[in-house]
Amino acid sequence: MRRTMFETPVLSSALHYVFRVVLRCFGWRVEGQPPDAPKFIVAIAPHTSYWDWPILVAMAFKERVEALWMGKDSLFRSPLAWLFTWLGGISIDRSASHGIVNQMIDLYNARERLIIGLTPEGTRSRVEKWKTGFYRIAEGAHIPIVLVALRSRSTASPMMP
Predict the structure, then answer these.
(1) Which of 88, 90, 92, 95 has the largest CB neighbor count within 10 A?
(2) 3-state SS assignment for residue 142
(3) How many domains does the chain have?
(4) Over the stretch 47-76, which tens digit does the pLDDT of each residue have?
(5) Strands across the sheet with 145-151, in order?
(6) Does residue 41 sit in helix, strand or coil?
(7) Domain that residue 38 falls in
(8) What's this model's pTM, rounded to 2 decimal places?
(9) CATH number of the domain where residue 154 is located
(10) Please, which residues have CB within 8 angstroms of residue 126's CB and are 6 or more apart in sequence?
């Protein structure tokens, strides 16, 4: 894996304070605490807006949670692909089965600490049921699942199962 924004010491510290102020100014708050575990997967729902991602990145910095995120591969084909990777992105090709679950299990097994966030709907559109990859990754890597709910403009709440 390449270096991410969380591994840039001065910038990471500065962004922690910047995002605390930005979130407060826009009325967003976090309820609850992230678990004290070196590895877990975060399932974030509902994913309804392009704004979900920047809000969640800001919350990760505010809470000092070094989280990677899974995103559709089209984001990583743009001229800004390097930026999305530096921001902690992991490119996912959703057009066919590519063994992503096993790749993520291997990644968890290879690292001492790893937190990955994803949206189980796999889209911003309304869905009747979630995709199950996050569960299969957690089961295969023997890690906990943390559920995070985005509610209107005012809260994001970690919910422990």
Answers:
(1) 88
(2) coil
(3) 1
(4) 667 677 777 888 888 888 888 888 888 888
(5) 29-30, 155-159, 145-151, 39-45, 114-118, 68-72, 89-92
(6) strand
(7) 5-159
(8) 0.79
(9) 3.40.50
(10) none
